[in-house]
Specification:
Blueprint: E1 8-14, H1 18-29, E2 34-37, E3 51-52, H2 54-62, H3 66-71, E4 75-77, E5 79-83, E6 89-93, E7 106-108, H4 112-123, E8 128-131, E9 134-142, E10 145-153, E11 161-171, H5 178-184, E12 195-204, E13 212-216, E14 225-230, E15 235-243, H6 244-254, H7 258-268, E16 280-281, E17 286-291, E18 300-301, E19 304-306, H8 322-341, H9 347-374, H10 378-390, H11 392-401, H12 405-409, H13 414-422
Parallel strand pairs: 1-2, 1-11, 2-8, 5-13, 11-19
Antiparallel strand pairs: 3-7, 4-7, 5-6, 9-10, 10-11, 12-15, 12-16, 12-17, 13-14, 14-15, 18-19
Helix pairs in contact: 1-4, 1-8, 2-8, 8-9, 10-11
Length: about 425
């Protein structure tokens, strides 16, 4: 560890993933001194589906990184293919009017690349100090207020312990956040009804790939879904996820697990066995957990703020978390800056951050939770996807819902289903 590092900063950001790096970059721009630390050495990998949502791209745009993203190895995404449990397939283009996806174009990038971009953007920002391979063990508290962190230098064979102090500590340390556990105690535990377990593996040589992300609702893994997301040079990110509670029940009932389910789909399922016949895995299957924003965790308190997965903000329908991590990071920076300016970093002073997060993301998260609940019903997926396969008007509605929360909300209305039945 660089011995010359100061002991004290305005803000310490724990975790330099998209959430932490965004928080640090915005705070640095606002002139606050920031220590951004991570236990990993960058570039580092992160288990993910690798789809960079329109919302992630907004922050990429604001940080001036679009051209950099386009230089990285990536898959170009023009729409989404869905299949229903009874085997109907539809391809829905992204609407060209989507403000988050100019030209109706999205990206899939292996996470080590965009994460390194966010990390480098933070590193190159004035006032941001980077500390890699430093693992936080605890948050330092004084009279119920977070005042710093304690951790170990992973490069030191003696595992030397060091403390840093700050006005505000930001927990951006992912789903198993040490910061969240330190400030929230038992309330930081994940609810298996509001979290998901997922695995992914990289493949090359899958046939029938297009510029669509593919989401398949397969009978044998309901109520979960299987995905194939296109990457650069014909490669793909292939994975499968289930709400943790459903997975636990399935493992007990069917004596199976996520890796076995994944292998079964690729080898046995009629829609996929031909497509994977000559495909080759590139590396091992890895798994991780997604904390859904359908459970509202406390996001700020005396001297602390949580962002991204540490704040449990993943979309409960799509599984997207990068956009909500960067959005919460941007908001956190704004409200932390204002609190420091007023010389008051109490829970009351940082509370508006939480209000702003739910204002910006709350509606969308609750619509997505309802969609996730509806998606549990095979007959409904068969109805919607089956009708969409035949009727352009239904395809248009799904296409609009990929771009707008208002359109997505239509799927909450019984009238929509009546219309589908009668169409
Ligand atoms: C299988 C799977 C598929 C997914 N697919 C998508 C997708 O296609 N699109 C999408 O948008 N999202 C997807 N997600 C969700 C997405 O990966 C997360 O929401 C996103 O990574 C959250 O970013 P973050 O910065 O909050 O946390 P992370 O990216 O997890 O970063 C946390 C950082 O904290 C560091 N850290 C952890 N503990 C400590 C510690 N004690 N001390 C110091 N540092 C620490 C870690 O090293 C890490 O760098 C997927 C997730 C999974 C598991």
């Amino acid at each position: 560890m660089a011995p010359s590092l100061p002991d004290s900063f305005d803000v310490i950001v724990v975790g330099a993933g998209p959430g932490g790096s965004t928080t640090a970059a915005y705070l640095g721009r606002l002139g606050r001194s920031v220590l951004l630390l991570d236990k990993a050495k960058f570039p580092r990998d992160k288990t993910c589906g690798d789809a960079l949502s329109g919302k992630s791209m907004n922050v990429v745009r604001e940080l001036g990184l679009v051209a950099e993203v386009e230089k990285l190895p990536h898959g170009i995404i023009k729409g989404a293919t869905f299949s229903s449990p009874n085997g109907k397939i539809i391809s829905i283009p992204f609407p060209s009017t989507d403000p988050n996806r100019p030209g109706g174009t999205g990206y899939c990038l292996r996470r080590q690349h965009p994460d390194y971009l966010f990390f480098t953007a933070a590193k190159n920002t004035a006032n941001v100090t980077i500390l890699e391979q430093f693992q936080i063990q605890d948050v330092l508290m004084e009279d119920g207020k977070a005042v710093g962190v304690k951790g170990i230098d992973l490069t030191d064979s003696k595992r030397a312990e060091r403390t840093f102090s700050s006005k505000v500590v930001v927990g951006a340390d992912g789903v198993n956040s040490i910061v969240a556990r330190a400030v929230l105690g038992e309330k930081a535990q994940l609810d298996p009804s509001h979290s998901c377990d997922a695995v992914r593996v990289y493949y090359e040589g899958i046939t029938g790939m297009t510029n669509d992300i593919e989401i398949h609702f397969i009978k044998s893994i309901m109520p979960g879904y299987f995905w194939i997301f296109p990457l650069e040079n014909g490669r793909a990110n292939v994975g499968l996820g289930l709400v943790s509670k459903d997975l636990q029940a399935k493992m007990k009932k069917d004596k199976t697990n996520l890796v076995q389910m994944l292998n079964h789909i690729m080898k046995e399922e009629p829609l996929f066995k031909e497509r994977f016949a000559n495909a080759k895995p590139m590396g091992l299957v890895t798994g991780w957990r997604l904390p859904f924003g359908s459970y509202r965790r406390q996001l700020s308190g005396n001297g602390w703020v949580l962002v991204g997965d540490a704040a449990s903000l993943v979309d409960p329908f799509s599984g997207e978390g990068v956009g909500n991590a960067t959005t919460s990071g941007r908001l956190a920076a704004q409200f932390i800056d204002e609190a420091i300016e007023r010389n008051d970093v109490s829970a009351l002073a940082l509370g508006p951050y939480e209000v702003a997060v739910w204002e910006e993301l709350g509606k969308e998260l609750s619509t997505s939770y309802k969609m996730q609940q509806l998606g549990r019903h095979e007959w409904l997926l068969n109805l919607v996807i089956g009708k969409a396969a035949r009727k352009p008007a239904v395809r248009d509605l799904i296409s609009a819902s990929l771009a707008s929360d208002e359109a997505k909300k239509k799927f909450e209305s019984p009238l929509t289903y009546l219309w589908l039945l009668l169409t």
